[in-house]
Amino acid sequence: MLKNKTIVIGVSGGIAAFKSAALVSKLTQAGANVYVVMTDSAKQFIAPTTFQALSRNEVYTDTFYEPDSTKIAHIDLADQADLVLVAPASANTVAKVANGLADNMLTTMLLATKAPVVFAPAMNVNMYDHPATQRNLQQLKAYGFQVIEPNAGYLACGWVGKGRMAEPEDLLELVQLMCLDQTVFTGKRVLITAGPTREKIDPVRYLSNYSSGKTGYALATEARNRGAHVTLVTGPTGLKPPSGVEVVPIQSAEDLYEEVTKRFNDVDIVVKSAAVADYAPEIVENQKRKKQTDQWSLPLKKTRDTLKRLGELKQSQVLVGFAAESQDVEFYAKDKLERKNLDLIVANNITTEGAGFDHDTNIVTVYAKDHYEKRYPLASKKDVALHIFDEIEAYMKRSDVL
Ligand code: CTP
Fold first, then answer.
1. 137 CB contacts (<8 Å, ≥6 apart)?
2. 205/313 same-domain check
3. Contact 338 CB / ligand 1 (< 6 Å)
4. Residue 179 catalytic?
5. Phi first, then psi: what are they for 324, rounded to 5°?
6. Rounded distance between C-alpha atoms, residue 253 and residue 94, angstroms
7. Handedness of CA 35, 41, 47, 48 (dihedral sign)
8. What is the pLDDT of residues 197-212, one digit of tens each?
9. Domain boundary, last residue among 155, 178, 201
């Protein structure tokens, strides 16, 4: 995602500088061209050689080190940057930038750059809470810089409170989102359903299925990474939802029907990967059922089919359904595509090795309304999500609904 992007990481003095080494490593692995600028204090915590090895680029520490006479180093770096992230941002560096001081390579470059700038402060809780620091952080925001709040927890100085620098994984995600290129999904509103539903029997029991939610969560991440505004309507999964996505938790097929149909008018694309119960107990007991009899028959009633309803309500939305089948996959998938008035359907045979519920992989075939179809080989659910959005994009281009 970060190919051809130049990210400048400013490292100021703080023990969290060790976390920046992990960040630089992750950014480089994600394809970014990373330059590190260190203050003198930062060098007390970590050696420039570490950053040089991880970024495979020279590390800038001195404003007046000008190895190339055709350029002025701090201006050249400021101009090249697609994004500058100061991590850790010490109270001193925050104060200097807030007041426009430029007394080292980092602060000089920050004054010169036109790229988006993000600060990830890290310091002792009392330093962070100090009115001077708070005023300076407000000032940075007023300049249009982004400030990533530190996390609360145990601090290296022994205090417990707010001051821990945001984690490298979260900073990586933020950088990736801020560096997104324009795609056909930029600004599009995408609704994704994920996971199983739970149909209540009594206060302690429910009917459900083996859906893990992994595909739906991967789809939500992929849609977000392509610049869409994502709503994730999710059954109980235990998975961590991707950041930057609106999460709507549901339990039953009925909850899902309500939450999805009421949002349908306001979305452009719906991908219905949730494994919705087709039947739910006719009566939900208020009290726990006691085991008085040898046998127990539980009358079930059909749930409302959300996807079918969306097919009826559909105007310009692109509607994508799923068909997890154990036999006659193509026949049932094409039948659902037509019967539910879908644009695309993603089919898989749950009896095939590596496919189906609660695995990390799947083998899918995508069938489109315009009779286009494509079979994909075994792939991780992350890659399946990528293929599905490629297919949605191709379909939107073919049918002129961009
Ligand atoms: N679906 C839904 N609401 C339901 C049942 C299913 O929205 N009450 C959606 C699923 O999210 C999936 C698609 O319909 O995208 C296909 O689900 P599936 O259970 O395979 O289809 P059914 O029409 O219920 O067909 P059958 O159970 O007979 O195979």
1. 94, 98, 119, 121, 147
2. yes
3. no
4. no
5. -100, 110
6. 50
7. positive
8. 999 999 999 999 999 9
9. 178
- Cβ of 219 closer than 6 Å to ligand 1, yes or no, is no
Span 173-180, average pLDDT: 94
Mean pLDDT, rounded, for 61-68: 92
Q: Are residues 276 and 301 in the same domain?
A: yes
Q: Over pLDDT 90: what percentage of the chain?
A: 95
Are residues 81 and 217 part of one domain?
A: no
Binding residues: 278, 288, 322, 336, 340
Average pLDDT over all residues of the chain:
96
Question: What's the CA-to-centroid distance between 252 and ligand 1, angstroms?
Answer: 14
Task: Write the CATH number for 77.
Answer: 3.40.50.1950
Q: Cβ-count burial of 38 within 10 angstroms (0-12 exposed, 13-18 middle, 19+ buried)?
A: buried
Length of the chain: 402
- Residue 1: inside a domain, yes or no? no
How crowded is residue 146: how many other Cβ atoms within 10 Å of its Cβ? 15
Q: Within this chain, do residues 377 and 271 fall inside the same structural domain, yes or no?
A: yes
Number of domains within the chain = 2
Q: Are the C-beta atoms of residues 194 and 235 closer than 8 Å to each other? A: yes
CATH number at residue 250: 3.40.50.10300
pLDDT at 402 over 80: no
Closest CA to ligand 1's atom 4: 305
360 and 249, same structural domain? yes
Q: How far is the CA of 323 from the centre of ligand 1 (A)?
A: 7
Query: Does the pLDDT value for residue 74 go beyond 80?
Result: yes
Both 155 and 217 in one domain: the answer is: no
Residue 290 included in any domain? no
For the Cβ of 306 lying below 6 angstroms from any atom of ligand 1, the answer is: yes
pTM of the model: 0.86
Residues 201 and 192: beta-carbon distance below 8 Å: no
The pLDDT, as a whole number, for residue 183 is 94
Are both 224 and 353 inside the same structural domain? yes
Question: Which amino acids are annotated as binding site for CTP, given as ranges?
Answer: 278, 288, 322, 336, 340
% of the chain residues with pLDDT over 70 = 100
- Is the domain of 38 the same as that of 119? yes
293 pLDDT band, cuts 50/70/90, is very high
- The residue range of the domain holding 78 is 6-178
